Structure formats: structure tokens, C-alpha cells
Amino acid sequence: MRTERIYISTTIPYVNAPPHLGFALELVQADVLARQHRLAGREVRFQTGTDDNSLKNVLAAEADGISVGELVGRNAAAYAALREPLALSFDDFIRTSSDPRHRPGVERLWRACLASGDLYQKDYSGRYCVGCEQFYKPAELAPGGACPEHGTRPERVTEENWFFRLSRYEARLHDLIGSGRLRIEPAARRNEALAFIAGGLDDFSASRSVARARGWGIPVPGDPGQVIYVWWDALGNYVTALGYGAGGDRAAAYRHWWAGSSRRVHLVGKGVLRFHAVYWPAILLSAGLPLPTDIGVHDYLTIGGRKISKSAAGAAGPASGPAELAGRYGTDAVRWWLLRDVPRSGDADFAAGRLVARANEDLANGLGNLVSRVVTMVHRYRQGRLPSGPAGRADAEARPLAAACRDAPGRAGAALDGYDFRAAIAAWWEVVGQANRYIERAEPWRLAAAERVGDAAAGRRLDAALGALTRACRALADGFSPFVPGLAARVAAACDDSAGRLPAPQALFPRIG
Ligand SMILES: [Zn+2]
After folding, report:
1. pTM over 0.90
2. Largest CB tally within 10 Å, which of 237, 275, 504, 505?
3. What is the Å distance from ligand 1's center to 131 Cα?
């Protein structure tokens, strides 16, 4: 039987500033999916990177008085360096300006669309938001003519550009998304994409003059006066990093991971839905390449009720940077807050106090305390040795715990399939709750006292209780390993009796503050 193969990507952020917590949310979500699928025995490739070719990077470098290459290099390194503080397990990291794999792939994508008759030259004049790197129609602008994402007035731009014939793909895109062959979650975002398509798709400008791009970016093949539109360039990373446009082994890697995966999953923020649900699939259709199968859309984080943006990151202070938070509170505490407190829909407001309270309540008092309690009882009543032999028939008191353990993997998997990370955690949290209730009902300390005065049946019930609780803790170690890998590994080690007995009990998650 062939192993199922899954490709998971994050978007690639432009690097005009160091990373902020909002993007950490997407990285951690993608990491959970990658770990979950690996745990299930699937072949996984998890990819992230940086969009170096954005005009915003050029403007930020000009403002700082340094070269674009220097600015991009410095900030891209800060993104790549999130790997350790956030415990990310990505398999590849692409930088679009310096990675030798990228440009040949983007050029090939361009030529494939040109060959399909979908690229043509046209004089154009429109309102362009540099923050979004896109043209807006007057009707799409906020009152006063401002960009709906940035609140700034887009500049009027007039030049001859290459255009992509998006209008040709209107009906096919609507059908693909409406039928679920290109699945967009949650449903509200699918409906948003369908409404955008139903409103009519205009061809979009796919190049910029070299002068307006300040000479930064990938030149249009055969037209050195133009560079390829940065979104076209950036979206291409999903296939160029895999070797699309390369020869030999690298082309084989592309076929393996893009054409050969049963699921191609893009995780994206709500603000870039249109590019991933409309522009990108249309480019792929034009080039004759397979489409993504899934687009999981998350909402935004806010601080003090305001969207965390790179321009506002300075105001929020470096204290809210993901690496700084992980350094201060620990990787698991940061991941736990992002996954446990951020709802699937609706923006979530970050405050360090919430992160601390959540970690102390759930990880120190909840999971950590449960496991320490169970290991301590195994030591106190059985010298650290777990009862040998097959598990006896669970008594009635143990049934809700056994049921929670049995149901959690399926419930968590279904929740993750819908990109609902909070619901996936809730499925496993049910096991924590049932284990604590079981301890209160079974009262192992009373069973131990009865056994000491000669009640052999109480001794057998104690064995069964300690066995059931240890199995539940092991299940929690597996279940939570995609979410809080560090703590989950400590739980697994605490419940490991391969040396004949469990290690001495210890605090698994000391309170933070
Ligand atoms: Zn904008």
C-alpha cells in the first residue's frame, strides 16, 4: 500500500521588518499539521520561507539607508531563526531573492502561461497600494478612497504592463471551489472567495516597470524593461522550492511532492485569500499544473485590539516578538497560547498575562500535575513498577476515561482536518478531565490502604487503576506531541518503564510568571 503523501506550506512573508507574533500563529499551525501527519505515518513535506522580492522591502531599505540585499538578508535570517524558539519542524526554507531554485521556476511558470495565451501587454492606469502590492478598483476601496487593509490612499500608477487573463478562468474557479475540489476552510472564507469570483474577475497586471520596482525582482523573460509582479513571483515559491523549472533530480522532487501528493495544503491569513484562492489556482490552470487541494484560512492576532502589523510591531515593542516570548516564557507556553486560545474564526487579542495564565492553568496545574500525580502513585504504591500482564477488564469507574482515550485521536484528527486547532486540543483535554475524575472516583489511596490490611481484591483494582491512568498519560504524550512537543516528550519520558520502572517523579511544567 502506498504511503499517503502530504505537502504543507505557509505563506512567505515579505521581510521589511523582523517577524511578529501574527506570523508565528501560521508557522505553528502548519507545524502542528506536519507533526500530526508524520505521527500518523504519512510522508510529509512542510515548507516555509520569505518573500524577498517585494517592493516593500525596497522601500524599507531606502528608509534605512541600506541596500535591499542587506535588509532582506538580515530580516530573512530572523525568520529562519524562529525554527528553534518555536520548535518548528519545517523541511525546507526558501528565500526568493537568493535561492537558486526560485528564478528558473518562476520563469518557467511565466513561459507556460505565455504559451497558453494568457499573458498580453496593455497600457494601464489604476490605484495601487504598495502595502498590499495590488491594484484596487474604486468600488473596493474604503470610504475616502483608502486601502481596506492599510487605511492609506493607494497611488495612481500608469504604465504598460503584462496582464494575466484571469477572466478566462472565472467559471472554472467557481466550479472548483464550489464543488470542494479546491477546498477552502472555514466555509465563510470559501463563500467569500466564491462571492469575489461571482462579482467578475478582471485580468490582473502581472508585471511592473523596472523603474517602479527599483530594479529589484525577476525580469520578465524576453522583456528586460519589466519585472514579474511580486505576487506572481511569491506564489511560485510553492512549486519552485520543490524543483519546478529545474532538471534531473530536482524535477523529480517536484513531481514527487507537488504532482505526487494526495493533498497540497496552503495555510494563509485572511488578508491574502484572494491571491491563493483565485490568482494562484488560475496561474496553475494556465500552466497545466495540479492545483492545491486545501486552503486553510486563519484570522489575525491583535494586541490591544489592533492588528499586529510589521509597521505597528515597533509600537507593540520587541517584547511581543515570537523569539523573545519563547525565550522568556518557553516554547511550549507560546505554542499553547497560539493553539489553545486563538479561535478558528475571529481575531484573538494577545496579552502576555493571558499567555502566562493559560500555561499555568493548563500545562502546570492541568496536564503536568496529572502526570506527576500518576507517576507519584506508581512509585508510592508499586515502587515505580507498573503491573505486568494484560490489562484487566476495566471496571465501570474507568469506562469514561477509556472512552475518552479511544475517541480523542479521531476527534482531534477531524478537528485538524477543518483547521480547528482549538477543538483538536479540546478533544485531548477531555482525557485530562476524565483522568482526574477517575482518580477522585477510584481513590487509589483507599485501595492501597485496604490492600495493606489484606484485601487482595483492592490490590487488583489498584493495579488496574494505575495501569489505566498510565496508559491515559501515554496517550496524552502522543496526542499533545504535535502541539507542545517539548512537554509531550517529558510526559512520555515520565511514563517510560522500559528500564523496569518509571523514573522518579518530577515537576513536568513548573509554573511561569
Ligand atoms: Zn493596502
Report:
1. yes
2. 237
3. 4
